[in-house]
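Model it.
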Amino acid sequence: MTMKSDMTDGEWLAGLFAAIDAMDTTAFVGYLAESGEFRFGNLPPVVGHAAIAQFVSGFFASIKSLKHEVEAFWRSGDHLICRGTVTYVRHDAREVRVPFANILRIENGVAGDYRIYADASALFA
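Modeled.
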């Protein structure tokens, strides 16, 4: 979803995380530039809507659900930074809470670069 001129950073982030928490790949990819780059933790970057959608769909299939709590966010130039806690629910119903920090470079109202800094290794342990 393109950030509209009257939309605040908080509103845009709320929509982004609502799409993620709904595990709605199509809505999520709509927040990214067509040729955008997405990187989760120490995994290799994924570039472009199709590749990102495939990656994110695979990740969503590996869990039962997730819920983000954004604790703070701020902007520095064309970068939007946020931090918080994400609660993953595994298919065995076990919950795993992980702190995260995301850095997004916003270009033309969408993320041209989206980096997630989180250690999700406990999710798959």
